[in-house]
Fold Putative oxidoreductase.
Amino acid sequence: MESASKERGPMANAQQNGEIRFDPVTVLITGASSGIGAELARFYARSGRTLVLWGRDAARLERVARDCRTMGATVRTRVLDLADGHAAIASFREDDTDHPVDLLILAAGLGDMRQHAERTERAETVLELGLVNYATPAALATAGAERMVLRQRGHIVLLGSVAAFHALPFAAGYSGSKAGLTRFAEALRNGLAEYGVGVTLVSPGFVDTPMSRRVSSAKPFMQTAPQAARLIARAVEEERPHLIFPRLFAGLRILDIIMPRPIRDAIMRRLKADQAPRAAG
Ligand SMILES: NC(=O)c1ccc[n+]([C@@H]2O[C@H](COP(=O)([O-])OP(=O)(O)OC[C@H]3O[C@@H](n4cnc5c(N)ncnc54)[C@H](OP(=O)(O)O)[C@@H]3O)[C@@H](O)[C@H]2O)c1
């Protein structure tokens, strides 16, 4: 099971020998205005480090930036909508030119699903999920990789979801977008292995954030956002290829793979979930 994977990169092996610690000088985080991304920003905030924080809501982003400055970090913020992938790529290149990024954390994501009373998801929402959860993070990871390969240093973190492992009938757009990101992260990691650039895919279960608070179904084994940030930072430090938490979901993933399709379909079709409408703005 990959959450307990012993497969580690060269940096982690060196760490075990007491040689180096991964101590990034510049960390760029998307989705830094809320939830897991905001906690990761606070986790990495310290004097001597530059944080480049991206978000969509300027006021929330500024609050996180202020916390991080109080903790001694130099902070630059950028407000943009990741549904515009071309603008995101250009923005990344601008930020990376000013502050070469050695840790790129693509945490931004959009959670959405079919409402209880609806027969299908909305086509426009599925498009938005594909752009924000898959297309733009994959493009940004590639833009980061292009630069990191030249510097022969860097680490990229992609926030997937355990929803990627299951064909959720009420959230085809979300689980499909995260499944795409999951496969992308695996392929990117193998493509970059020889260049000294690491990739960690993070697949969380439920984490207590504004995103999960909209969901009204049961949320077993929910973690807090600070707990999630600590687990992710440790996985980065250990150069893990894939972090799944809580561990139970790594087991469910294997069950989903080995279960005969008719049984899996019958279980999936019985699953129900609902969510509150998205907050305006
Ligand atoms: N919470 C969970 O239970 C859970 C479980 C599995 C996976 N995840 C994944 O973990 C990641 C973080 O989620 P979270 O729980 O921290 O959610 P959250 O509190 O809702 O935060 C989501 C972040 O993504 C940003 N974002 C969303 N749409 C955007 C857009 N179009 N353009 C730019 N930024 C956008 C938000 O920016 P603004 O707030 O500024 O709009 C916010 O900073 C996501 O990728 C999510 O899919 C979460």
Summary: The CA atoms of residues 86 and 136 lie 8 Å apart. The domain at 7-270 is CATH 3.40.50.720 (Rossmann fold).
